[in-house]
Specification:
Layout: E1 5-10, E2 21-24, H1 27-30, E3 38-43, E4 46-56, E5 71-73, H2 79-91, H3 96-103, E6 116-121, H4 123-130, H5 138-150, E7 153-154, H6 162-170, E8 174-179, H7 202-217, E9 221-227, H8 233-246, E10 250-254, H9 262-272, E11 276-278, H10 285-296, E12 302-305, E13 317-322, H11 340-351, E14 354-359, H12 364-369, E15 372-375, E16 387-391, H13 401-413, E17 416-420, E18 429-432, E19 449-451, E20 456-458, E21 465-467, E22 480-483, H14 487-498, E23 505-508, H15 510-515, H16 520-528, E24 532-536, E25 549-554, H17 568-582, E26 595-600, H18 606-612, H19 616-630, E27 637-645, H20 648-661, E28 667-678, E29 681-690, H21 693-709, E30 717-722
Parallel strand pairs: 9-14, 9-15, 10-12, 10-13, 11-12, 13-14, 16-26, 17-24, 17-25, 23-24, 25-26
Antiparallel strand pairs: 1-2, 1-4, 3-4, 3-5, 6-7, 6-8, 18-22, 19-20, 20-21, 27-29, 27-30, 28-29
The chain binds adenosine-5'-diphosphate (ADP) and zinc ion (2 copies).
Residues 441, 443-444, 459, 461-462, 464 line the site of one zinc ion (ZN).
Length: 725
Amino acid sequence: MVPAIAQVEPLTTARALRGPFDYQLPEDLRERVAVGSMLVIPFGRRELVGVVVGLVEESPVPPERLAAPLRALEAGVSAELVDLAGWVAREYCSTPARALSLVLPPGAGRTRPRLALVATLAPAGASALAEPRSRLSDGQRRLLGRLHAEGPLLATATGVDHGTLRRAAARGLIGLDRHAQRRRPSHEPLGALRGSPPTLSLDQRRALEVVGEALQRGAHRRFLLHGVTGSGKTEVYLRAVERARASGRGAILLVPEIALTPQVVSRVTERFGDTVAVLHSRLSSGERHDEWMRLRAGEASVCVGPRSAVFAPLERLGLIVIDEEHDASYKHEGDPRYDARRVAERRCQLAGAVLLAGSATPRPESIVGLPRLALPTRIDGQVLPPVRILDMRGAARALHPETAQALSTVRAQGGKAIVLLNRRGWSNFLTCRSCGRAWGCPSCDVTLVLHRARGTLACHHCGHRQPAPGRCPDCDSVSVARHGMGTERLERELAGALGDDGFPIFRLDADVAARTGRGAGVLRAFERAEAGLLVGTQMVAKGHDFPDVTLGVVLDADATLRFPDFRAEERTFALIAQLAGRAGRRRSARGSAGRVLVQTLVPEASSIRHAARHDSEGFLVEELERRRALRYPPFSDLIRVVCLADDAQTAQIAAGEIAERLRIPGADVLGPAPLFRLRGRERSQVVVKASDRAAAVVAVGAAVEAVAGDRRHRLVSFSADVDPV
Ligand code: ADP
Ligand code: ZN
Ligand code: ZN
């Protein structure tokens, strides 16, 4: 029987309300409650759900003043996850309640088994789709097309409105059913199913031996798998998961984004079948809850998912794999602003588990911090494709003549190419040719981007949209100039120059992804096409394994270098190296091995030159030197505090006071420095470069609390970000 007093953290978003609070457990609950249990508690005049974070014999509060919980909820989490949540709250200057909500079942305390509406293609729908003359509305045609291509879909994922669904069901074109049981979300495998697992290469075997030995010893160890693109890292992950399972333990495999990494996911589900739970944001809340419960109940022991899967409720965790560990999506941009890579480290430490982070372009932090296992060559023996840097200074056209020539050659040979331009939309900004007016966002100090197909100008920071102008509202001129080029325009121009039925042009960026199931459909279509072009933002450079891409092109490769961020070099290097990694895999019968062209205005930039030589080693050496000199991570820890207010001076004064309070030994304080206005809020920031991370986190937390509590700053809101990206 457990002690009589439960320390309960109420789940509330109010920052001021901080537990834990003591509750007296009645006899019947004492048998059922443990650390991690969820209770319904009376709180003032309300009822709240709370989590038990501790159990003690006595409370400083006299017994007669202690309330009792009303009841216990059936699902809770392990003490280990409660511990992890406490760490997240402290490490990222957040609250226990917010951190706990990360580890609890989705929709904690409020979830009932939910019924989800699922659409399937009916035979009548299939024949209507095949018959070009059948009378279908645009919406129906789109709906049937997607069901045909992707199989059954949740109603919410079909991309058409409810009316269209109902009318299609009434005509017998589709089936529309509610499903209540635990549904396994279906994952259509991308590419040919592989039969039995391949025989490992010598390098793969060496890496696996080291990881396997650590797993066997059951002690916490960390490794970096540094393998060039196409070196077979995924196979090493799979074997490591197998080893963990063989010793009776579970594994979590983190991927940057499920929709963009369908190949990894299908390889995992293919290998481990029903023991895999996939957690991702496209699941309905009911589905997510069910997958979560399968893990909690031990029905599944392997979990694949994006950053939030680091909190998956596995009992006996043996291994966490972080695929593409350099990817920025591992950082969460809401409170708590956790970094899944660091959380994974902590969790492995608590569980005595092995952490295996892998990448072709690892972060300098990981190179310094983790023992390295190397896969220096491609599995198919192909050399990495040669990369040419094309100097665009003084160029009149968007495409260098060599690029244009190379693309025509791919088309003539019926091959495939990928073109990366890390900017979506049609053009970056508009100006009036007569009076010089520039179109800016009303709430942010940035220019609006033209999206021609939608006929709108959009702010890429706050989401504001307005109709694209036909004339200038200031001087009435109709002469509006469009500057720069984004993926929408590039796609159109390439389609005009090269595209036809035999050579389709596909586009993948956040705009397309929002319409088409996050882009998985585009990737599948490109993979299935005989020939063609994939145009897009950095999404096209993720770890896709297309066998027959012979040309990769990066336009405006220095765009990422222009960001005022100490990671600009690292990003630029990774982007080029990753795109180069897509080209020249398994030489196709007709084509050459593959090559890469990089257009840039700064051909001498060291990140670009190193990427062109596939010299990850050389880049890291130089980058680490630079970071050491400037005292950037991994040679310090960064913490950023942003003060937001309606006017700039109010924000700046508050930030100034924070900076004042942070003059602590061993820390450099930068700022207060004004930032551009965002979502109608003026901002000012302070950045701390700390050598003692733990002390700095505490100091920042205290400084923010003190300044935020001062009435003079009541119009200011604050956000603290540890390891900002
Ligand atoms: P990476 O993740 O390092 O970019 P992948 O894991 O995608 O590389 O592997 C590239 C290709 O090589 C995949 O198609 C994979 O199935 C295949 N592969 C991996 N290991 C082996 C092996 N030992 N023998 C044969 N093929 C392999
Ligand atoms: Zn004008
Ligand atoms: Zn805006």
